[in-house]
Design goal:
Elements (H helix, E strand, L loop, with lengths): L4 H18 L24 H16 L5 H4 L2 H14 L12 H24 L4 H30 L3 H14 L16 H21 L8 E2 L2 E2 H16 L2 H24 L4 H30 L3 H12 L5 H7 L3 H16 L10 H8 L9 H7 L14 H32 L4 H20 L9 H18 L11
Antiparallel strand pairs: 1-2
Length: 489
Amino acid sequence: MKRSWTEIAASGGGVMWRLFLLFLPVTSFRYFPEGFGGGTLVRPLSVYPLVFLLIFVTLPRLFKSIPKTVLSLAPFILVALASSLLSLLSGVEPSLGVTVIDRVLRALVTLAIGVAIYLAVALTPRTPDDLRQALRWIYGGFTLAYAWGTAQMVFILHYNHAYFALLNRIQRAFSMRKLFPTRISGMTYEPNWFAEQICFFMLPWLFAAVLNNYSIFSWRWRKITVEWLLLGWSVILMVFTYSRAGLANLLVLTVLTLMLFQARVLARKQKSGSRFKVGLIGFAEVSLAVVILLGGMYFAGSKNEFFARMWKYWTQNKQTSVSRYLEYIGFGARIAYSEAALRTYAYAPVLGVGLGNYAFYFEEMVPDQPLARTPELMNIISPEEGRNRLITVKNFYLRLLSETGLVGFASFVLFLMAIFGCVLFLWLSSDAQQKFWGTGGMLGIIVFVVSAFTFDSFTLPNMWVVFGLITAAAWIYSQPGVKEVKTDI
């Protein structure tokens, strides 16, 4: 019996959906077409199955019943588009051989990819079982990435040139960049990216599962679940990324999870004496967790001199200051990027200078300072011959302000508020499954709030996938008579 085109598309959509989730850990794929942003560092492998999903699944469902949260992103898209188009009339001269129109087109393509990722994740799942299956495929992809990261840990603990060279050849087969001899980077471009992936894709849902004693897998040995094992694996790998932002996120999520756990225990206690005892135990548990994490960071720092700078500055220097400390740990250039972004925002506060155009204003807006103390700035202002990569803000909030202005920033905040509303709907539910998605969503938003100070790309799937899962979960559980049934996708 011949299958209809609709059945073939649905079947293919299911395959592409699983591949999309499985490929999420690879974000700097070596073979990436120029039209998809091949000139950038961010090259998600998931874009390939995403194209099929967009045509055969996402777009058709846009014309049906969709979550209202999806529509809340439209104002930001319109503002970003208007700001970018107006920048074409600004008369800004090309920089490093790149024109304003080149930069704007590339930026709009990256935004389109990010929005497409969000729409695919928000609209593809149709039932609670679809949501769980999606999370399982994400876990599956990251199990492979974790295995690869564990293999990299070996040469950090005990360096062997032949072993490192072998892994490096494998990495270069699919990634744009070779491995770091002193840090693990998983399947990403650099260790910080791997740490962000762990924070966005894994930790919120793993902590939520542990906190709610919930698992999307049937296997369980006493209180040990798959999520417990993945959580332990995540923490170990996170330490060896030597990512300061990643470890800060891990510390925040650990403390918040323990506090939420203790709050639930206290809520079940009626007697004041019992509540005081539980509260004291909770404080001790949080303190112990912080000490263990800090101890692990200190031990790992002994294997990485740059990471150890975070505390060695205060013990090795007699005259200390916060500004010198920030320069010592490598934050000098980041501060300059931020100051330049704020000055760019002041220059065009309403709609900004257009997506991607911060780079054209950087040299004019960067504060006067000795370049010898920040070689990174010297390389940007006086680049080597053949270098054509323009600078970015490296701060998502400041990128929104400088490139889309106060209007763009406010419209994106409104979108975040809509996502937060979905989280509250799930969080306040008495149903265990909804509470799991609400807890994971809450922790995911916290990760975004912290991580947005250290990334600025619209193309990275991290935040879009988390926002999409939150949107999908809230919409699915808000439907009357929702049942545990499977669909084609």
